Amino acid sequence: MPESKAAKELDVSVTTLKFRCHELGIPKWPYKKMKCLATLEASVSGFAHPGSQHVIRHIREEIEAIKQNSTLEISDETNELRQQMYELKKKRKRNDTRAV
């Protein structure tokens, strides 16, 4: 859940939420990482590639690891996959606009 929504649920300001998180050792709110990984998982699920299940399992493991320790960074392998998916989406969009 986004910081603003979490702050509202807890009935505190976003600044107070950030302050408390820092006190508890949470330097950054992990929502963007989690959303990024969920989007990546959905994108990979759309492919009927034999290795897709392995990749999806890896993404889910990474999501669980970040849930346990929000300070973890997204792995280089996953970042590379994100970049590849971005390039693929961009290429498809470009080809769709040329076809019109």
Automatic annotation (TrEMBL):
Key word Transmembrane helix present = no
Give GO MF terms, alphabetically.
DNA binding; DNA-binding transcription factor activity
Q: Is tRNA-binding among this UniProt entry's keywords?
A: no
PROSITE patterns noted in UniProt: RWP_RK
Instruction: Please list the residue ranges annotated as the RWP-RK domain.
Output: 1-57
Alphabetically list the UniProt keywords.
Answer: Coiled coil, DNA-binding, Nucleus, Transcription, Transcription regulation
- State what this protein does: Putative transcription factor.
This chain belongs to the protein called RWP-RK domain-containing protein
User: Which organism does this record belong to?
Assistant: Rhynchospora breviuscula
